[in-house]
Amino acid sequence: MSELPGYLHGYSEKERERLHRQARFLEPMVHDRLPFRRCRRLLEVGCGVGAQTEILLRHFPEIHITGVDVNDAQIAEAQRFLQTAPGASGRFEILKADATRLAFMPASFDAAFLCWILEHVRDPARVLGEVRRVLAPGAAIVCNEVLNATLFLDPYSPATLRYWMAFNDHQFSLGGDPFVGAKLGNLLQSVGFREVQTKVRTFHLDNRAPAERAEMLAYWTELLLSGADSLLKAEKVSSDIVATMTEELAEVGRNPNAVFFYAFVQAQARAW
Question: Which of 47, 76, 96, 129 is 20–30 Å from 204 (CA)?
Answer without folding.
Answer: 47
